[in-house]
Amino acid sequence: MLVRIDKARVEIIKTASSIDPGIRMDALRLDLIHPVISGNKWFKLRPYLDEAETLHKKKILTWGGAWSNHIVAAAAACRESGYSLTVLVRGEMPAVLSSTLENTMSLGAEIFYLSRDDYRKKTIPPFIDIEDFYCIPEGGSGEPGVSGASGIADLFEFSEYTHIICAAGTGTMSAGLLRRTRPNQELIVIPVLKGFKELENLVRKMAGTGPGKLTLHHEYHFGGYARSDPRLFSFMNDLFEKTGIPTDVVYTGKLFYAAMDMLAKKYFTDGSRILVIHSGGLQGNESLQKGTLIF
Ligand SMILES: *Cc1c(COP(=O)(O)O)cnc(C)c1O
Fold it and tell me: 3-class DSSP state for residue 84?
C-alpha cells in the first residue's frame, strides 16, 4: 500500500499582495509531498494501485513519453507498494536516455519503446501477456484518477478560498477539484496544450458534478505542450528569487505566470482568497540546458 498523505504545506505568496493588496494568494506545495512521486500524480495513482490490490494483480502496465512525470511517479509508487511496473514509452529509444527514463529504470521499471504509430494505436507488443497486467492509462486519467485527485481538496481548508487555480494536461486533476467546489467558488484552469478547446466540456463531463464556477484560460500555453521561451524562464527565475518557489517548465511555470498575470490585470476582486496548486513536475526541468534556471 502506498503511504497515506493527508497534509501538504500551504504558504502565502507575499509578492502577490504587493501587486494587489486587496487579495491574498497562497500556494499549495504538492511538489514537496514526496521526493519522487511529486504533485498530483501521487493522488491520481493511488486509487489505481488500490484497485490492482483488490484484483490481486502484481504487475502494472502504463504508458508515457520520455519526459513524463507520470512514468517516474508510477515507478516509485509501484516500488513502494510492491508491484512490478512495465512502461510503454512513446517513440524509438533515444540515443541518450532522458533523466526521466534513467530514473524510471533505476526504480526497477521495465521499459519498452513503441513507434509513435503503435503508441497512438495502443498496440500491445506480442511478448506482453496483457492478462497478467493491471493497466493504468497514460497520465493516470480516468475515473479512478479523478476521484483520487479530488482528495487534494482534503489537504487544506478548501472552503476558505474563493478561487482555486491549477494547470491542466488531461484535465483529470481539474475534474477532481471541480467536484469539490461550492457555488461561491471558482476553479480556474490553465491548459498547457495549445488550442485544447474541448477541454472545458471534458472536465465537466469527467467531474459529473461541481456546483462551483469553472473557467479555462487558454492564453498561457507558451506555444504548446512542453514548449517554452526565455520569457517563461525569466519569470520562473524571478518567482524563485522572490518567493523561494521552484516551478517546472511544462505545467507550474505557466500556471504561476497565469496567476500573476491575472492578478496584475485585476481579474480578482478585493477580498479574494486564491489558492495556486503547485502540482509538482520539477523533474522535467532536467530537459533544459544547464544554467537556464537558477534553481
Ligand atoms: C500531470 C501534471 C499535471 C496535469 O494533470 P492532469 O490531471 O493531466 O490535467 C499538472 N501538473 C503537473 C506537474 C503534472 O505532472
Answer: strand
Phi, psi of 147 (to 5 degrees): -70, -35
Global pTM? 0.97
The torsion angles phi and psi of 102, rounded to 5 degrees, stand at -55, -50
Q: Tens digit of pLDDT for each residue in 68-118?
A: 999 999 999 999 999 999 999 999 999 999 999 999 999 999 999 999 999
Percentages helix, strand, coil for the chain (3-state, rounded to 5) are 40, 20, 40
Q: Which residues pair with 60 in a beta bridge?
A: 85, 134
Report the side by side order of strands in the sheet with 163-168: 10-12, 24-29, 273-278, 163-168, 186-191, 213-216
What is the rounded CA–CA span in Å between residue 104 and residue 101?
Answer: 5
Contact, 10 vs 245, CB < 8 A? Answer: no
> How many angstroms is it from 104 CA to the middle of ligand 1?
18
* 137 within 8 A of 158, measured Cβ to Cβ: no
- Grid coordinates in use for 272? 479574494
Query: Residues 6 or more apart from 209 whose CB is under 8 A from it?
Result: 179
Q: Is 69 in the pocket of ligand 1 (CB under 6 A)?
A: yes
CA of 173 to the centre of ligand 1 (A): 7
Q: Measure 40 CA to ligand 1 centroid, in angstroms.
A: 6
Q: What does the pLDDT look like over 247-256, one tens digit per residue?
A: 999 999 999 9
